[in-house]
Design goal:
Layout (H helix, E strand, L loop, with lengths): L10 H15 L5 H17 L5 H16 L3 E5 L1 H6 L1 H11 L2 E4 L6 H13 L5 E2 L6 E3 L9 E3 L8 E5 L3 H9 L3 E5 L6 H5 L2 E3 L3 H15 L4 H10 L2 H18 L2
Parallel strand pairs: 1-2, 1-6, 2-3, 6-7, 7-8
Antiparallel strand pairs: 4-5
The site of adenosine-5'-triphosphate has 17 residues, from α2 and α8.
């Protein structure tokens, strides 16, 4: 890993890139994952590389929905594993969720490498590797139709950070509640999810863990109200407005 100077104006962004490059060299991330990160970076730049109040609202609703879920599952791909492995383990513990490896560009070798990497960073159990428990869902046409019957197949709520649109729509068709973390408020994923956190996953995950910890002491009726009152369309519209305002200011 090359050392990024803390004086560089984009130091944090460069450090995140380094994490992905390390993940690529370790066989967790595919080249397409590096390109997808670039798309995310562009939106992050426009958003000012900070968590908006709209993202905070989505995080609050997410924590409530995850705490209320019967079988919550966190779906993990190579980028997620490379960027926030410790946070994935911590969040799973905080909300009692299962972790499942689910890859767009799937290979058994990469699945196993990601599962091992997550365990090394504190995850107790990682589903989604091997054939024994895997089943296919016909709504999905890519490799990702393979899901674990103990995980996503049985889930009522699925957290899908950095997800592809096809899969998000398929999970919705299967009757799952879907929560996305996606810097692009225009992506099909962002539009199809029940809750979209428009924020960088490296900022959103620690906040989500903290919020889940705080809300875990609240009565369930209060959590239900929080989850029910959240309007994803309205929140995305507010995010677009915030983006427009920022672009106007830079004229
Ligand atoms: P969709 O398929 O949902 O229409 P897409 O095809 O534009 O979206 P994909 O390549 O399928 O995008 O998925 C990658 C998504 O992840 C992109 O929308 C990108 O903005 C987002 N993304 C990339 N890196 C991050 C990150 N660090 N934090 C949050 N989101 C990110
Ligand atoms: Mg896509």
């Amino acid at each position: 890993m090359t050392k990024v100077s803390p004086l560089h104006p984009r130091a944090e962004s460069l450090r995140i890139r380094e994490r992905l490059v390390d993940g690529f060299n370790a066989g967790l991330v595919v080249p397409e994952g590096l390109a997808a990160h670039g798309r995310g970076e562009a939106f992050d730049y426009i958003l000012g590389e900070q968590t908006t109040k709209h993202a905070r609202r989505a995080i609050e609703a997410t924590a409530a929905m995850l705490l209320l879920a019967k079988h919550p599952v966190i779906s993990v791909n190579g980028n997620v594993a490379a960027l926030v492995p410790v946070d994935v383990a911590k969040l799973a513990k905080a909300i009692n969720a299962k972790i499942e490896v689910n890859l767009f560009h799937g290979s058994v070798k990469r699945e196993v490498a990601i599962a091992r990497w997550l365990r090394k960073h504190g995850a107790k159990e990682v589903l989604g590797t091997g054939k024994k428990f895997s089943i296919r869902i016909n709504e999905i046409h890519s490799n990702r139709r393979k899901v674990d019957r103990r995980g996503i197949a049985a889930a009522d709520v699925v957290l899908v950070p950095l997800e592809d649109g096809d899969r998000t729509e398929a999970l919705k068709k299967l009757g799952k509640r879907v929560i996305a973390i996606d810097l692009n408020p225009m992506s099909r994923t962002a539009q199809a999810a029940d809750i979209t956190i428009v924020d960088n996953i490296v900022r959103a995950m620690p906040l989500l863990i903290k919020t889940a910890g705080r809300l875990s002491y609240q009565p369930r009726a209060r959590l239900r109200k929080k989850a029910k009152n959240f309007d994803n369309r309205a929140n995305l519209r507010a995010t677009f407005r915030a983006v427009r305002e920022r672009l106007n200011l830079s004229k």
